[in-house]
């Protein structure tokens, strides 16, 4: 965690919380994945604690970004069939 503390300061953490609170779940996943990738080692854990997201969600965001968001529908927040059943 020392590397994360050196790179990111408290004002940055406050801004991340503010921005993540305004995003829908798809965009929050992508932003969290991006931040995790930028931070590097320990980034997933740091973002998970900061944004209150599950580490699996952050990893999925990283995978979505690596795939160029190819499998992510632009008109929907979730993929077809995802979410709670009616």
Description:
The protein has a domain at 9-66. Helix content is 62%, strand content 0%. The protein has 5 helices and no strands. It is globular. Helix 3 runs antiparallel to helix 4 and helix 3 crosses helix 5 (55-66). The chain has helices spanning 2-7, 10-20, 25-39, 43-51, 55-66. The chain has 86 residues and is an all-alpha fold. The model has no long low-confidence stretch (mean pLDDT 77).
Short recap of the structure:
The protein has five helices and no strands. It has 86 residues and is mainly α.
Which terms summarize this structure?
globular; mainly alpha; 86 residues
The unreliable regions are none
Number of E strands:
0
**Intertermini distance:** 42 Å
Instruction: Write down the secondary-structure element order.
Output: HHHHH
The rounded Rg comes to 14 Å
Roughly what is the average pLDDT, rounded to an integer? 77
The share of residues in extended strands comes to: under 5%
Estimated helix fraction: 55-70%
Secondary structure class reads mainly alpha
* Main sheet overview: none
The geometry reads as globular
What's the tally of helices?
5
Question: What's the structural blueprint in terms of helices and strands?
Answer:
Layout: H1 2-7, H2 10-20, H3 25-39, H4 43-51, H5 55-66
């Amino acid at each position: 965690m020392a590397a994360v503390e050196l790179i990111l300061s408290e004002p940055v953490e406050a801004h991340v919380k503010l921005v993540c609170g305004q995003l829908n779940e798809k965009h929050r996943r992508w932003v969290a994945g991006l931040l995790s990738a930028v931070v590097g080692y320990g980034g997933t854990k740091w973002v998970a604690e900061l944004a209150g997201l599950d580490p699996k969600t952050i990893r999925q965001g990283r995978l979505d970004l690596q795939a160029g968001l190819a499998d992510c529908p632009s008109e929907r927040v979730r993929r077809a069939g995802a979410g709670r059943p009616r």
